[in-house]
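wait is this the right file?? whatever heres the structure
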């Protein structure tokens, strides 16, 4: 017998983690696709009760294709206009400078705007802005970092 929206079916609830009564929210070709649990009232895709065979055939892809599909879904880091401008400034101010032009970063040194800095972890950068409370913003190749100085 075809299932339509509004009918009740038994299904596996993904939140309650039990076979419970569900109301069909959406059905395709007489098969439930989306259901609402009558106990916890959450909506989820239809899953056949445990031990029962699902009336909905699932597409199964080889494991390698699944890994490749997941890798494609990872969103790339978005770079704002301000960040891209800072990176461009880093190229002009830092790239190609002599090693002796850089000061090794330490917490105790007091740094000034546009001073070239070498950090053990972040690499070479320049002081973009000096903030209050002994903080400053240094632009490195990978982006800007807020660090402390003068302590």
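ok assuming it is, sequence goes like this
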């Amino acid at each position: 017998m075809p299932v339509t929206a509004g009918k009740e079916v038994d299904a596996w609830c993904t939140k309650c983690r039990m076979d419970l009564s569900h109301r069909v929210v959406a059905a395709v070709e007489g098969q439930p696709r989306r259901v609402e649990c009558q106990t916890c009232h959450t909506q989820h895709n239809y899953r056949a009760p445990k031990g029962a065979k699902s009336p909905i055939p699932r597409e199964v892809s080889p494991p390698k294709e699944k890994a490749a599909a997941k890798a494609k879904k990872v969103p790339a880091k978005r770079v704002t206009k301000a960040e891209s401008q800072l990176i461009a400034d880093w190229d002009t101010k830092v790239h190609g400078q002599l090693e002796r032009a850089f000061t090794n970063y330490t917490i105790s040194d007091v740094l000034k705007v546009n001073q070239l800095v070498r950090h053990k972890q972040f690499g070479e950068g320049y002081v973009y802005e000096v903030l209050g409370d002994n903080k400053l913003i240094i632009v490195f190749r990978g982006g800007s970092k807020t660090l402390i100085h003068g302590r």
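The helical segments are 63-72, 81-93. so i think its the right one actually
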